[in-house]
Design brief:
alpha/beta; 8-stranded mixed beta sheet
């Protein structure tokens, strides 16, 4: 039997009401999302403009490939140490501060801030190892620094393998601070894969992400002004275009480094975290890297990847002992 016309009309009215309610709910959700995105975006733009005025300059700019690269120098020792940062370090000069404080009374310490880091300009130039190494070298040459100990953290270990071979007559020793090793490569990232990250950055979500994250400098020997500047520069550089391009080049940079070893006569000292949280062969692969070195040594530390933040004094003391034994 067919439903009476009146009952059909009531059912149609009920369906229409339910549909309208659903549409109103979906519309309200959409408006809420748009408002949320707008608030995040506007807050980020305003905060960036205000924070840019609070950045306290340090170091000096040198011209490299027509752009400004920032270099920080402290100490007047006879020997020079050139410090290179790990990937994504917002301000190498400020981040290395505990270690610089331990080394500067005895050495001339030079912190090079590659493009996209610290107070250096960004660049669209490919972030290949060859380009990064040549840019760092050009900065040092412009400052007439031509004999030094190279000291690098994390990804700088990959770039340093190229560097110490290309400029073997300039580097007197190499010190690795929990450096990356070629055998434990990063995953390949295509250029198309970083497009969503750019949207994420441009909308201002990194600021929200950082607000919800733990303070990486809590409990460490950094004064409040330094921590404030570090936080401003973290906000400024997180997912910037230069560093995203470096991510795209990272896999090929690791692969190219697989063919390299340290020069046999170059003294090599590694400081390595004793218990890597994700990689079982972290220590053995570092041992392999210096197995052909005439003078190589590794120091294991109960620390995380940023071991120079928490163990600066221990690193400096062991380093100076190592250098006196030449």
């Amino acid at each position: 039997m067919t439903q009476p016309e009146g009952k059909k009309a009531k059912n149609r009215t009920r369906v229409k009401k339910v549909r309208n309610i659903i549409l109103k709910i979906l519309g309200a959700i959409l408006i809420a999302i748009v408002l949320f995105l707008g608030i995040v975006y506007i807050t980020n733009v305003i905060s960036n403009n205000l924070e840019a005025k609070r950045i306290v300059p340090y170091g000096q700019h040198v011209s490299v490939d027509g752009k400004n690269m920032n270099v920080f120098i402290q100490g007047e020792g006879e020997e020079t140490i050139v410090l290179l940062p790990g990937f994504g370090t917002a301000s190498p000069a400020l981040d290395f501060k505990p270690l610089i404080s331990e080394l500067a009374p005895y050495y001339k310490v030079v912190v090079v801030e590659p493009f996209g880091y610290g107070l250096s300009d960004q660049t669209e130039r490919e972030r290949s190892t060859a380009n990064i190494v040549s840019e760092i070298h050009e900065a040092l040459q412009s400052l007439h620094i031509d004999r030094y100990i190279l000291m690098g953290h994390s990804i700088s270990g990959i770039y340093s393998l190229n560097y110490v071979n290309k400029y073997a007559d300039e580097v007197s020793a190499y010190v690795g601070l929990d450096t990356s090793v070629p055998a434990i490569s990063e995953q390949k990232v295509e250029a198309s894969e970083i497009v969503p990250i750019k949207w994420y950055r441009n909308l201002g979500f990194p600021r929200l992400q950082l607000k919800m994250s733990d303070d990486p400098y809590a409990g460490l020997p950094y004064d409040e002004q330094t921590k404030e500047q570090l936080n401003i520069l973290i906000q400024k550089h997180m997912f910037n275009s230069t560093q995203l391009n470096e991510i795209v080049s990272m896999y090929s940079n690791f692969k190219a480094a697989e063919q390299l070893t340290f020069p046999v006569d170059l003294p090599v000292l590694f400081f390595v975290q004793k218990n890597h949280p994700a990689v079982d062969n972290w220590v053995p692969e570092h041992e392999k890297l210096m197995e052909h070195s005439a003078r190589g040594e590794m120091v294991l530390l109960e620390a995380n990847h940023y071991l120079y933040r928490s163990h600066a004094k221990e690193i400096a003391e062991k380093f100076m002992s190592f250098m006196t034994q030449r």
